[in-house]
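COMPLEX REQUEST
Ligand: 5-amino-5-deoxy-1-O-phosphono-D-mannitol
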Amino acid sequence: GKGGHRHFMAKEIFEQPQVIGDTLNAMFNPTERTITLPPLPFDPAAVPRITMIACGTASLAGMVGKYWLEQHAGIPVDWDLASEFRYRAPVMTEGGLAVFISQSGETADTLAALRYCKQKGQHCLAIVNSPESTIAREAHAVLPTLAGPEIGVASTKAFTTQLVVLACLTIALARARGTMDRATEARLSGALTEVPSRAAEVLNHDERIREIAQETFTPARDVLYLGRGTSYPLALEGALKLKEISYIHAEGYAAGEMKHGPIALIDETVPVVVIAPSDELFEKTASNVQEVVARGGKAVVFSDAAGVERLKHLALEAIALPAVDPFVAPILYAIPVQQLAYHTAVDKGTDVDQPRNLAKAVTVE
Ligand code: M6R
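STATUS: Structure written out below.
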């Protein structure tokens, strides 16, 4: 059942504190404050490069993973959509690691990419939610997301648990490669263990987000989402979520790209969602908010108390999420963008769990 919620999507959004914790606990050692991956049939820390491959929301988890792995583990990471990857002629470094991310484990393009990578001598690691799936079976190794069954077509808890697994992979590889010291590992894994309770706090903003959805998003024809660094894939995810369930046209953009085109779209009819945790890129994103507002744009800012203080005079709405280590911000900031899409869709009266033209698993091209 829907556990008292109106839709599976709402139930699955609210399950996130629990399933994020479950997924983390499978790899976190609380006494040592270290992350331990299950035994793998290859050494993931010894690979010359990594390729992240997936579709849709899973691909956006992979993009966050790319940013994390490059920054903390110093490994070159390629990122690709499975549907593009499989029809290019991708050049693979022998002995590389290919990571496939999929909730269903049955996505046709992701599976085809996995088969290609096996032929090209890659170690194939699957991050999947369905342990009995084809991708789980055919990969050389699996890191499971423990999200439990996800029924709503819109991916929610699968995404945040994929991020948890990628964060753990990042920490484990960084330690093994000597790019992260013990103190940093303890700090980042400590930040991860706080995510379930911080996520529960985010869920408390549900009513406020519902009001914002109703007032500002339901009437909109186009919505823009902006972010930098690991908030850029979150902007893409926010836009994907909104369009697939509310049928409102939405685009995610790297905030620094605004001046290269999309700022021409801005006027008072276009809400602009800004994902801006306090991190080393915050001031840059803040100047983009300034530019949006100067052109009459309605900025809806997701940040923490410090960021809200800095931007509230500019923004139409500014929501203060709990302050967290920037490393774990993408996991937390996924939640309000899901809530925003959810409430807009409910308000528009669409079929939230089963949006038109979409299937839960895209098993044919
Ligand atoms: O089962 P998968 O994770 O491989 O599915 C990938 C995409 O089809 C999926 O994430 C899709 O983009 C979602 N409906 C987005 O909410």
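REMARKS: The two ends are 31 Å apart (CA to CA). The chain has a mean pLDDT of 96.
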